Amino acid sequence: MVDDERNWARNLTYSAPVQHPGSIEELQDAVAAATRVHALGTRHSFSRCADTDGLLVALDLIEPDLRVDAAAGTATVGAAIRLGDLGRLLDDHGLAIANLPSLPHISLGGAVATATHGSGDGNGMLATLVRGLEVVGPDGAIRSFAGPELAGAVMAYGALGVVTRITVAVEPAFSVRQDPFSTMPWTSVEQHLDAIFAAAYSVSLFTTYTGDVRGGLVKSRDAAGWSGPFFGAEPTPRDPAEIEAATSKTPVGDFGPSWDRLPHFRLAAVPSVGEELQSEYFVPRARAQEALAALRGLGEDIDPALHVTELRTVAADDLWLSPASGADVLAIGFTWRDLPELVLPLLPRIEERILPLGARPHWAKLFAARADVLRERYTGWDDFARLRDEVDPDRVFGNPFLAEVLGS
Fold it and tell me: Which end of the chain is more exposed for a tag (fewer CB within 10 A), N or C?
């Protein structure tokens, strides 16, 4: 089956037809026959990181075939499975993965490859859960990545091949309660930023850049939840009758399985705003206050283009192209209005202020920096370049976007 597609936000149309192989063997044949090919997940990227001028392949017709290794504490599954579906399958086995992003609709393979994350001082990128990859290379053969090379292969933006199966670390299933909070004085962020994010398993703040924080979500793991004010923000309880209502947002005020509480949106619902663009920058925690102050200095220009910013924390890792490589980070996510004429000119102005503080952009979202600026920010840059030259010297999995951000 071949079709033409746009991405979820409908801000770009892919440059190539999308093929949906029905088996790994069909995928191998398609890749081997192509001169340029790239994997396409659930189309939640806002940049052209998943585009190609050759052939796009989506693995959504291939069964996930979940295999659990209880002794190793891992599960292996098809890369196309959506995170929410993976959570439900693992829950049937009494298992879970440690963290999830706000959207459970994203494929595991796409999430791992593109620096997708949730929130929590102790929670890393989803890619940090990966223990092994199976990848179809440029000749159609399957290659396994494990050991030291995995740090380069796991977050590769599709540059090393089509990931077919992923082994992830799992743990016993756990429950999460999320509690929403109202407006928080900005002075609380200035005075208590570290304490706010250390207060629970996962914390998200929602804000603009003029005025106070608009609200927050505090997600507690196997605990009583947060009662009373939260750093100056008041609880916003809901009627108990709404807890199981068919709304787009996940339930608050009671405990539930982690796969249904760590995301902000329900798997069966249309997520987020819909008419939007997104950008995100990851700032070392030591420079977070400086970055927020710099952004508030642009608040009068940013806010007219903005739906909301979400602030989250991500733990440091050692992945070569990770925006959290080497440092705990504050993730500053911008959900923009669908107004590219306002948004795109803002990005260089934002980056001029926060990239010197060590910020790194989310490659699957909108940003302005390119290879000449990016290469200075990743200690694993040269290691990844060598691995890519070894695996795909002819750039079968390259595309114009990767040429711009990787420099080749």
Answer: N
